[in-house]
Structure formats: C-alpha cells, structure tokens
Amino acid sequence: MEMQQPKNYRLIIQHIIFWLGYMAFQALSYGWEYNDELSFQLPPQIFAVSIPVIIVATYINLHLLMPAYYYQRKYTRYSAALLVLLLGSGLLTRFFTYEFILPWEHMHDPDRFRRENKNFWIPVRILRLSVETIPMIAVTMLMKLMSNAYQQEKRLRELEKEKFTAEMGLLKAQINPHFLFNTLNSLYALILKGSEKASKLVLRLSALMSYMLYEAGGDKVLLKDEISYLENYIGIEQMRFADRLDLSFQYSGDIAGKMIAPLILLPFVENAFKHGIEESSGWITVNLKVAGNRLFLKVENSLPEIEKKGSSGLGLKNVKRRLDLTYSSGYDLQLMKNKDTFEADLKLDL
C-alpha cells in the first residue's frame, strides 16, 4: 500500500492542476465573449454552478458509466446513459442558477438580473447547458482511454519481460542435477547387479528428458502428456527408493484435449520426494482430478523427524511465480505444514 501513495498523490495533483486550468480558461472565455477584451473574470454562475456540475458529470462518466457500459462494449446502453447524464447536468445547472444565482444577481448585479429570463423552464438554455458539458466529457474520456492504453501496453511489456525471465529460469530448472545424479547412480547399481529394471529405468529417463527438451518449451501442453511425464518421474523415484517408499498416485476425470502449462505440477511432486523421502523412509499420495475445466491436485507426504537443514522450498516459490504469470487469479494454492506431514492443494482453471 505504501508504494501506491506517491502515485495517488501525483494523480490528485494532476487532477487539481487540470481543473484549475479549465477554470482559468472559462474565466478568460467569459471576459472575451461578453466584454470584447481579453480579461480574467470568473462570474459566480461559472465558479459556483457550471464548473462543479461539469466536474461531477465528468467523474460519473469516468468512474461509473465507462466501467459499467463502455469497457463492457455495451455501447447502446452507454450512449443512452451518457445522454441522460448530459441532460441531467443541464437541468441541474439550470436549477442551481435559478435558485441561487438569480437571487444573487438581483442583489449584486441588477443590470444583468433585468436582462435575465426569470422562467425556470427554458428548453433552449437547458439544452445549451447540456451541450457545454460535452467538450469536457470528450476530453477527459480521451485522456482516460489514452492512459488505459498506455498502462495496458506497460503491463504487457512487464509481463513479457517477466515471462522471459521465468522461462529462462524454467529452462535452467528443467533438469535437476541432483535428481539426475542420483538416477544415474541408481542406474549404475542396477547394471552392476544385472537387473532387468535397468532397461526400464533408461526408458523412463529417456522419455523424461525428451519431454523436457522437446515438448515442454511451449506455453501449453496436453494434460495427458503432463500426466505421463509425472508417471515417468514417479516411476524413476520408485525404482530409486524401492522398499523405503509407500506411494499412491491416482488421477481421474476427463483429461482429453485439456491443456496446461508445462512442468507446472512437477514441483509439488518433486518437493514431496525431496523433503519427505530423500533421507529416510516415508509415504507420498498424489491425487489429481479434472472436473470440467477445473483441475484439482493434492500432494501429501510424510516429514522426517529431523528435517534436513537448508530446505528453502525454492521450487515451490518458483512455481508460485509461474502460476501468477500464467494463470493470474485463475488458481488457488494452499500449502499446509503440520508436525509430521506436508500438504499441497492446488485448484487450477485449465
């Protein structure tokens, strides 16, 4: 919140300067029109009635009508609402002029009061007062649209920069050296024993690296391919930990044709192995469910009695950032750590 205050103050100051400039312009215009000379005059009907009404009408258009109709592309409704706003501003200006300015002129400016039409309902004047609001509505609307376009372009540039940084980080993290080192050690041990599991491990590792290098480079991949990748990863880890691991991996729902950001689910499973099983025995459960266009992932793992020091959870921090960049508000992530268990619960709009 503290970072927003300077921007808010600057915005308020900009608005004040803008309206002061508009008041000065009105004062000069009034002197030019009625006295045929360039002088600075700010009569009460402009200062006390016209400008406040125009300001109120302008902000109603900017902060109510445009968000409700214009930004939603409901142009017919916006036009009708804007017409009502303009007529309302003309009527309101006429009302305050009739109720307050005419009595003031009767006491302080009798000559002008004698020339004034004393009737309230003067359609032509009300229409003119309504039309006088249009230039400020148009100018402020144009400024707002230009500001929105600039902010959107700025956000896109920032998003592209952040996406590039995240993608570079993803490329560096795709092959975990620690995981690869342990897998190769396990493979070497199986080969020495002449175990048939060695060939299966090679196939799984080959499929894993092929997916990382050739398929996970796009913005989205098929969910079924991401699940196959998880199965290969879990299969390798099961071979490594053998009887030290009690694991359950299940998925359900209609996954056909569903797309997901690549490698977005792996860090939760990887974290379970790294912090739950790496130095001891334990259990892991992975449940993945798809309902409509909503994905539910729940990963639970046991925690050792003495946790390994230096476990920073950097992988989960990175995946949170990727979720923010890729899915914005379309996800919900809950991480819960208890005395002897850790749970990651992810809900994601596909």
List the helices and strands and how they pair.
Layout: H1 4-35, H2 44-70, H3 75-108, H4 110-115, H5 123-173, H6 177-193, H7 197-215, E1 221-222, H8 223-241, E2 245-253, E3 259-260, H9 266-276, E4 282-291, E5 294-302, H10 314-327, E6 331-337, E7 341-349
Parallel strand pairs: 2-4
Antiparallel strand pairs: 1-3, 4-5, 5-7, 6-7
Helix pairs in contact: 1-2, 2-3, 2-5, 3-5, 5-10, 6-7, 7-8
List the keywords.
alpha+beta; disordered N terminus; 350 residues; 5-stranded mixed β-sheet; single chain; two-stranded antiparallel ribbon; Heat Shock Protein 90
Structure description:
With 350 residues, the protein is of the alpha+beta class. It folds into 2 domains: 43-159, no CATH class; 174-349, Heat Shock Protein 90 (2-Layer Sandwich). Helix content is 66%, strand content 14%. The strands form 2 sheets. The protein has a 5-stranded mixed β-sheet, covered by helices on one side. Strands 1-3 form a two-stranded antiparallel ribbon. A hairpin with a 2-residue loop joins strand 4 and strand 5. The model is unreliable at 1-5 and 31-40 (pLDDT under 50).
